[in-house]
Amino acid sequence: MELTQEELNERIAVLRRYRTLLEAQRNKFREYLMVLEKQEAKIEADDSEALEMHAQLENQIVANIAGLQKVILPIQRMYEKAGIEGAETMQAELQELQQRVLAQNEKNRSLLASRLTAIRTQMTDMRVMNPYRARRSIYAEKTAGGSMIAVEA
């Protein structure tokens, strides 16, 4: 089967667009992985403000990746339907990068879960160790006070 110049040009355009989108997605995954790695350091350093900023940045990157994926899927179908070859190595690299992102994300989740458990334990210990915990008033003494009043007129 001989391809016409128009069909060949169309396949080249699909391949170029597909590669461009895959490269953009790869860059977003790299950015996301970098944020996750920095987030791990902030979790270990117990820097809550930086963690909040990382979480916001992470949400933006994930939204960008999802948006790219919506654009990539139709082009990928066209790419596969046309039987074009040439982006397999990039797809494999992207898959490997996705696996690294998922592994780092899981690592950060487990670090956050262990940190949260440690904070809860610390709060429980603070409640138990509070010397005023069982008193009605922090000014109340456990020793008995006087019960008689001397009144002189």
Which key features would you list for this structure?
single chain; 153 residues; mainly alpha
Describe the structure.
- With about 150 residues, the chain is mainly α.
- Helices cover about 75% and strands about 0% of the residues.
- It has three helices and no strands.
- The chain has helices at about 5-45, 50-80, 90-130.
- The chain is rod-shaped.
- The protein starts with a helix and ends in a 24-residue tail after the last helix.
Rounded to the nearest angstrom, the radius of gyration is 31 Å
Helix and strand content put the structural class at: mainly alpha
Major beta-sheet overview: none
Note poorly predicted spans.
none
The helix/strand series, from N terminus to C terminus, equals HHH
Strand and helix layout:
Blueprint: H1 5-45, H2 48-82, H3 88-129
Put the structure in a nutshell.
This protein is an all-alpha fold and 153 residues long. The chain is built from 3 helices and no strands. The chain has helices spanning 5-45, 48-82, 88-129.
